[in-house]
Amino acid sequence: MQSYSIVLLDIDGTLIDDERKISTNTKCLLERLEKQGIPVILCSERYPDGVEFFVHQANLYSPIVCYSGNLILDSNRSILQDYGIKTSDAISFKKYANKYFPKVVVSTYLYNVWLVDDADHPVIHMEANMIQCVPLCAPIENALRNSDHVHSLSCIGSPQEISALQKSASPLFEDIQFLHSGPTSLEVLKKGISKKTAAEYLQKHYNIPRERIVACGDQMVDLEMLEYAGFGIAMGNAPEQVKNAADCVTASNKEEGVYIALRRLRFKPPLVPVSAI
Question: Is the pTM value of this prediction over 0.85?
Fold first, then answer.
């Protein structure tokens, strides 16, 4: 029977339930795995402090993957990998979206900074409550004057507007990719960087074959990671395309799907200990 050496977990819609909590059973299982030397690595679209919030909740200490693979931090939170969209491209995309899709709310992320146009917008208030981040209201051109890249742009709107924006913008911005993190959310990221490339990076650091990676997710942004892992687990609340790409489908995030899937697997620590990365 195959054993696994690292666990890659999406957060929203996967690790946490709809009240943004991790179940007691899941916490105990993840903590036990790390005590056995199995790195449990949270891989999210969230910014670093937003990931860290759930690291503390689950009592983990492994590296973290932020912005869907564009920023990877080690267990001491030093930078291992840092990619992003060129600042000029980010500014151009935002101007395009604001002009042609004014109902879509576009904001920008760089490390732990969240830039918005209107901090009082209802969508921003809702997002701030969900991700536990305080937005900075500032013109993107001024705020990014001394930065050569941003990690992510987030677009929130109706499913129809989000799909139309993706279809319209994709051929115009060749160095940018668009990934759905939900029916009303579109992540704008550097092309070629993803949770899959993060998995590849971590695989090399832990010196293990990909067959010993287990990954769990629920959205299109997780799909490539699930396909790359030795054992890809789709949540019961995932869309059909994600389920079809996975090796198995577990229960939903409301029903302790992560706990149910992982408790049945065998694990063996990687050659490189958690403390070494």
Answer: yes
